[in-house]
Amino acid sequence: MSYPAEILLKALQEEQPGAFEQVYNHYYPLSFRKALSIVDDECLAKDLVQDVFLYFWENKTYRQIRTSLSSYLQTMVHNKCNNHFREEQKQRRKYEEYVITVTTPEYAPAEEVIEKVQQAYARLSGHQQLAVQKVHCEDLSYNDAAITMGVNYETLKTHLARGMKKLRNCMH
C-alpha cells in the first residue's frame, strides 16, 4: 500500500512503524536513477544511494524536512554524488603530491617521476598498496587504516614499512 507523500512524511516524522520502509521502497528507484545519471556506474550509484538512506535514517534528518520529501531526498543524493567526486579529486591530488615528494632526483621531470612511482606502486602486493593508500593518500591513522583493512595494527605497520621500502628502492 502506497501513501501520498505528505502522509508518508508525517508518518516518518512521527516515527510510525513501517514509515521508513515505505519511504525507502517508494523513493529508492528515483534516487538510484538520479545517482546513476550523475556517476554513470551502477554499483557506485547503489552504494551512494544506500549511504544517503542510511544517513537519512540514522541522523533522523527527516525531522527537519519542510519541503517535499522527494526534493529533499533528491538533493541529498545529488550532494552525495558531488561530494564523492570532490573526495575522489582530493585523493587523486594527494596521491600526485605524494608521488612528487617521494625521494626523487631533482633533475627528473615530474611526469617521469609520477610514472616511475606508479610502476613501483603497481609492483607492491595488494596489502602493501592498500596500506600506503590508507595512510599516505587518505591520511588515516595507523589504527584506523588497520581497522578498515581488517588487519591488526602490527600487520598494517609491516605492510606499510615493506611497501614504502620497495617504493624508495625503486626511486633510486
From TrEMBL:
Name of this chain's protein: Sigma-70 family RNA polymerase sigma factor
Entry GO MF terms: DNA binding; sigma factor activity
Domain RNA polymerase sigma-70 region: 24-90
NCBIfam families: sigma70-ECF
Recorded superkingdom: Bacteria
Family note: Belongs to the sigma-70 factor family. ECF subfamily.
Lineage: Bacteria, Pseudomonadati, Bacteroidota, Chitinophagia, Chitinophagales
Organism: Chitinophaga tropicalis
Pfam families: Sigma70_r2, Sigma70_r4_2
Record InterPro entries: RNA_pol_sigma-70-like, RNA_pol_sigma-70_dom, RNA_pol_sigma70_r2, RNA_pol_sigma70_r4_t2, RNA_pol_sigma_r2, RNA_pol_sigma_r3/r4-like, WH-like_DNA-bd_sf
Domain RNA polymerase sigma factor 70 region 4 type residue range list: 115-167
Biological process annotations from GO: DNA-templated transcription initiation
Keyword terms: Sigma factor, Transcription, Transcription regulation
